[in-house]
Amino acid sequence: MHSFLNGLAAWVIAAGLLSGAKSEAGRDGFELARERMVEQLREDEGLENARVLEAIREIPRHWFVPKALEEMAYYDMALPIGRGQTISPPSMVAGMTDRLDPQPGDRVLEVGTGTGYQAAVLSRMVSEVFTIEIVGALARKARSTLKRLGCLNVEVKTGDGYLGWPERAPFDRIIVACSPERVPRPLIDQLREGGRMVVPLGAGYEQTLYVLTKTNGFMVREAVAPTVFVPMVGRAEADRAEGSSRFEPALVNGGFEEVLPGTSRVKGWYHQRQLRLVGASDAREGASYAVFENRSPGRTAEASQAFALEGDRFRELVLAGWVKGDEIEWGVSDRERASWVLACYNAKRELIGVTAAGDWLGTFDWRRFEQRVAVPAATREAVLRVGLCGGTGRLSLDGLRLTAGR
What we know:
This protein has helices at residues 7-14, 21-25, 29-43, 50-58, 90-100, 117-123, 136-149, 185-190; strands at 79-82, 85-87, 107-111, 128-133, 154-158, 171-176, 191-203, 206-215, 218-227, 270-273, 275-279, 288-294, 302-308, 316-329, 338-345, 351-360, 362-374, 381-387, 392-405. Helix 3 packs antiparallel against helix 4. The protein is α+β, with helices and mostly antiparallel strands. Strand 11 (275-279) and strand 12 (288-294) form a beta hairpin.
């Protein structure tokens, strides 16, 4: 399951802007909200796979989130589901499903059932879905919800996903919703020759989503994008390198000099929307910098990065760097503005604080900034979001540095 609410969602929640799908839409609010969500996947994510979009249109996501959060179900955000887990944002579910390329006759293994939403989406697209969840309470709840929805081609098992499901192998497709550091050997063995696996790999908060294709017994790897998921537990913990998680808050690729090999994606940054790298002589650090550009008020143009942050050790964060603006204006409201936003989470991955800093408007040349934000004592993880954040214009950033104060 995806680790965090995305940065935009966290800011929207904290700002009190979520009025809820029911109250917004009037009659049958969830259905209308789901249709809007599908349109956003098509427009903002560029998703063109009609089968994926139709499957997501059919599945009531509000059935798969806690009752207290169901009115947030159709916003593009992860939501906490208990026991330190979350349900992935719809854009992540849609993107991973699209990359999986499931076919009608396929038998699919999912590792990390959560509440069962991904399995439900797949059930509309393939012959059989076998899904494994290591947390017994989540597996039982998912089984009940899937049965209620009539997903009779889905089988749920409580167990360690690292080991796969040998009794049901081989599989045509495997999708993994938690992050091991390396691909578990049992999953490779249980994937059919020519089959495809979608899996996030990496240590701590530095992960990459990959598509793997089994060719002549070997896994051919294609990088998709930087990402962050909860770590795979159970047997996978024995494969984890010591000291693989960062405990000192810091940014990866804050100078925007590196791209993820084999892609055009900026290394280290998640949820990249309307972001491009510019190589130019006026870069304030190195040879390139990030440019966020948006012409539609309210549309996202941003990127995020997550990191460990112990609030009882570090009581404030300082973000410094270089910024340049070109015709920057607010979005739909004055809350949608070019800025950086820090969202803090406790040990249960519950949102406990959001602070927005930076208020960049108009047109101005490169200038240095340095701003401080307080960190709640209960913080254990944080997400930094930078960009236009619903505003319009063109925002350039370079040489970002994050330091912690005690």
